[in-house]
Structures are given as C-alpha cells and as structure tokens.
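Re: flavin-adenine dinucleotide structure - here you go.
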Amino acid sequence: MSEKRYEKGPGKGPEKGPEKEPTRETARILVVGGGYVGMYTALRLQKKLKPELRSGAARIVVITPDPYMTYQPFLPEAAAGSISPRHVVVPLRRVLGQCDVIVGEVKTVDHARRTATYTTLAARQEGAEPATLTYDELVLAPGSVSRTLPVPGLADHGIGFKTVEEAVGLRNHVIGQLDIASSTRDPAVRDAALTFVFVGGGYAGVEALGELEDMARYAARFYHNITADDLKWVLVEASDRILPEVGPEMGKYTIRELRGRNVDVRLKTRLESCENRVAVLSDGSRFPTRTVVWTAGVKPNPLLAATDLPLTDRGRLKCTARLTVDGAPGAWSAGDTAAVPDVTADQDGAHCAPNAQHALRQARTLGDNIAASLRGEPLVDYAHAYAGSVASLGLHKGVAHVYGRKLKGYPAWFMHRVYHLSRVPTLNRKARVLAEWTLSGLFKREIVSLGSLENPRAEFELAAGGVPPAGPSGDAPGGTPKGSS
Ligand SMILES: Cc1cc2nc3c(=O)[nH]c(=O)nc-3n(C[C@H](O)[C@H](O)[C@H](O)COP(=O)(O)OP(=O)(O)OC[C@H]3O[C@@H](n4cnc5c(N)ncnc54)[C@H](O)[C@@H]3O)c2cc1C
C-alpha cells in the first residue's frame, strides 16, 4: 500500500474512542446503505484492507437506517411464515466488526467537498440538526424505493412489500382478515375482508401473492365458516405479461398456475383508485377490499437528488463499468442505485438490471476496486451475464429460468430454495433457515396472527385505566385488532 495514497485532507469522522480517531493519513471510506451493496462492499473491504484497518490507515463507516441487512428474496416466505422474520435479516454490527456502523439516514452529499450530512434516531428525537461527516471515498448505495403513482386512496390504504416490517405486517393483516370475515354477520364486510388486491406483476408482487395465497388457503381449513374458495385474490398488472425476469414462456406458465388457483390475473390493467376501501381498476371493475398491496416497481432513492453527483434520465447514478461514478473521482456505486453499463450485452448502451444478482456481484468488484485504487493498482470492469431467475409461488410451487433451463412446479421451487439458501449471507443464517424449513416439513404451518405485537402497551394501558392508543384497526395492512389471533 502506498502511504502517499492515504494522505488526504483533514476532516472529522463520527465520535469514537481515542484509539480509533482518524488521522490525516487515514483513508475514510463512507458506505451509505446497509443493504446488498452496502453490506457486501463493507465485508469485502474488511477482508481486503485488513492490514490497513488494523494499523489505522483506513477506516470504514457504514450509515444505514436499520442495524440489519434484509435479504429481500426471502420476504415472501417471511410473509407466509415459512421463515421467521429474524432470519431474513443479518445483524450488521455482528458481521461488520471492523467497521463503524451508524444507524442513521444520510440526507445530503456534497462530493466536491467530500462531506455528507446525516441524522440519527437520537438526533431526531432531540431535534438536533444533521451532523456532518467528511470522507475520502464514498460508496453510495441507498437502493431504491417503491415507485408510487398518484392513485387516490393509495397512500391511506396501500402497503408496499420491500421491508421485513411490511412482510410481517401483511401476514398478520391477512390472517386478521380471516378472523374479521369469520366473526361478522355483514356480507359486505366479509366480502371486503376476504378480497386481496396486489398491484404489480414483478418478483415482489407475484411471489408475495403466491406465498400469501398458499398460506391463507391452508389457514382457511381451520375456520368453521370460511373455505379457500371464499377468498378472492386479484393480481393487477399494467403490461401484457408478468414475471419478466423468468422470460415470456415461464411468465405465461405462471399466469396459468395462478389462474388455476383461482387468482384473478388482470393484464393491461391499472389500479385507478382505492378510496373508501374499494379498488377501482382501469377495466371498470370494482373490488371492495381492505387489502391493497402495491408492488408496481421501484425508483431510485430520493437521496440521489440531494447530491452533486451525475444522474441518468431515470434518476440512477451515472456509473462506469468499474463502478466509479462517472466524472467523480472517489465516488463509487452499485446495485439498484447505479446505472452500470452491461459490458456483456449485445446492444450498446444497455445497463445492468436492478436485482440482487447484480448487486451482490457488483459489491464484490466494488470492494476490490476501492482496495486497488487505494493501493494505486489497476481497477477491473464489472462483467456478469444475467444467469436467469427463480421464483417461488407458494409451498412446493415455483418457476425458474436459469442458464437457459426452464423449470416449473416442484423442481423450480426446490431450485429456488437451494439457490437462495446458498446466497443468504452468513453460515449462521443459512443454518437457521435450513432448520426452519426442515421443522416446517415435519410440523404444520403456524396460522396465528400476532398483530397485537404492533401495539404492546395496549393491554397494560387498559388495565391501568387509561385509554389505549388508537392502535391498528385491522383496516389497513400492518395491523389487526387485538385478540384476533
Ligand atoms: C420482495 C422482493 C423480492 C426480491 N426478490 C429478488 C430475487 O428473487 N432475485 C433478485 O435478483 N432480486 C430480488 N429482489 C431485488 C433485490 O432485493 C434488490 O435488487 C437488491 O436488494 C438491491 O440491492 P441494493 O444494495 O442496491 O439495495 P438494498 O438492498 O435495498 O439496500 C439499500 C440500503 O440503503 C439503505 N438506505 C436507504 N436510504 C438511505 C439513506 N438516506 N441513508 C443511508 N442508508 C439508506 C436502506 O435502508 C437499505 O439498507 C427482490 C426485491 C424485493 C423487494
């Protein structure tokens, strides 16, 4: 490592003990985001920069809103109860022992000055101004956010499917709706409770619907007055296909499979409104419902607009194949945030798709390139031809198109599990997920709703004579009435 490379301008890092205080010679690497790219890049840097981290010549700071990385491909299984929520997340402090993990949110980046501002939970509670942090190398990886449209009622009644909280909330909500339907005498309430509308036919929407439908179908057996046929599942997709990730043929198979399960798949259709708990579609149909799940794509994180870095027309960071931000030395990116040229594509100007497959591999190249750059060594291009995709459609059901091979049903589902078990980070998580799958093969599924967990003080407040806070009403996903389980 060249000492000279580490002689960067002054600056102050986050508050830490004196032994780790950065010096003028310390290369400060700021990683924004603790998802796929953030976590895997930091892991790679921990490995590649071991001597520098030990000697204090390099320091890595990770800023992310949650102290864990979410393995998003397992969210549908978490919603179905096949994997417990704790096991679809990886605790960052445990795996990033050589990094400083700050739970906070980066608000702005001024790369010309090599500074970023960020808020923490404590600062927000105290009403403090965002703190400023100076860095030498920036890895900007805040991922994407749900792409919403101004659909009336959506903000009040919809729920996304990107976080573990949403997955768990949705599971509790769906089971809660069965409880509501089972206990009402009003046919309109029952009908709305048993109608579930999903908007968006990509990975997230199809897998979430597939897993939840399967779970609810099973749960219905335990209700004396609900049968699986009473449940109405609607998938609304604006284009003429679903699951583009597995190709047209497997996409058509998925539609047949879902329709075979009585799922109402509507192509070339949009959600126009969901006010007053009625989902109105562009084909004129209306579904009274208490559940609208919005998974109609993602858009780049709004943080990107609060930086001085170059963006593409679609709002992603303009990057090179070396994962540097174009024309901004010292700035790096990958994953959903970055428009990275796909050097394996036949046509010019193609970019890597925003998915986990690229995010994970790009993060490794990114870590290697940052280490190489600090040492004055040459950088390498990121090159990975898309291998295809696997998707789960419920227990023992799936679809896959990988390396030209098309699989459906049980073999695809099995491949989905093997693939994701091999990919979920850390041996600890792999062992726990495998144990859960094995146990759920031996015992029956859990069908209980713990929506009341979202309002843990309600019972005590009632006992103490207070008025319980306006808790989850069971109307909006993410909450069910207490005692509904
Ligand atoms: C339900 C679901 C299923 C999926 N299934 C698949 C699949 O089967 N296969 C596949 O290839 N892809 C799948 N994907 C897509 C895949 O998960 C994403 O492409 C991948 O997570 C992108 O990685 P990333 O690091 O760019 O973003 P993320 O993993 O989303 O990480 C972004 C991180 O940045 C943090 N952050 C956000 N804002 C800030 C801020 N202001 N300051 C600091 N930190 C911030 C976030 O909290 C998060 O930790 C799925 C996605 C979903 C939602």
